[in-house]
């Protein structure tokens, strides 16, 4: 969260550090068989085939990532979406984005 603020106030090297630390927190807690991708800026995507994890395992993985992030000066928001039969990849990503933005809005409300 707030990469633009970090880049604007502390410089792009600080923003790069935030991205690297976030990626490491995610990577350390990634379930076997799941894949981490940086999709742009400060956004990452984790793809997990059903063979790698069920929803309960994914929620636990997300909790571990968020707890790991609490050990850093940075925070992240997460959205999770489960594939629906016949659903396109863009629709799946859109649902995950919606969930992520909901979490981001709730974290901003909690800070106010």
End-to-end CA span: 15 Å
Q: Which of globular, elongated, flat, extended, rod-shaped describes the shape? A: globular
Low-confidence stretches: none
User: What profile does the largest beta sheet have?
Assistant: 2 strands, antiparallel
**CA gyration radius, whole angstroms:** 14 Å
Order of helices and strands: HHEEHH
Arithmetic mean pLDDT: 90
Total of helices = 4
Number of strands: 2
Which structural class is indicated by helix and strand composition?
A: mainly alpha
Features:
112 residues; mainly alpha; two-stranded antiparallel sheet; 4 helices
Structure explained in plain terms:
The chain has helices at residues 3-10, 12-29, 55-69, 89-111, and strands at 35-40, 43-47. It is mainly alpha-helical and 112 residues long. A two-stranded antiparallel ribbon has the order 1-2. Helix 1 runs antiparallel to helix 2 (12-29). The longest helix has 23 residues, at 89-111. The relative contact order is 0.12. The mean pLDDT is 90.
Question: Topology of this protein?
Answer:
Blueprint: H1 3-10, H2 12-29, E1 35-40, E2 43-47, H3 55-69, H4 89-111
Antiparallel strand pairs: 1-2
Brief synopsis:
Helix 1 (3-10) packs antiparallel against helix 2 and helix 2 packs antiparallel against helix 3 (55-69).
């Amino acid at each position: 969260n707030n990469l633009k603020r970090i880049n604007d106030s502390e410089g792009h090297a600080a923003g790069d550090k935030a991205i690297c630390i976030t990626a490491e927190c995610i990577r350390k807690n990634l379930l076997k068989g799941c894949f981490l991708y940086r999709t742009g800026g400060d956004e990452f995507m984790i793809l997990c085939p059903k063979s790698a994890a069920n929803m309960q395992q994914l929620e636990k993985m997300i909790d571990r990532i968020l707890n790991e992030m609490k050990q850093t000066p940075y925070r992240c928001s997460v959205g999770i979406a489960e594939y629906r039969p016949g659903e396109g990849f863009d629709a799946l990503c859109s649902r995950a984005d919606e969930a992520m933005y909901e979490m981001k809005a709730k974290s901003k409300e909690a800070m106010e």
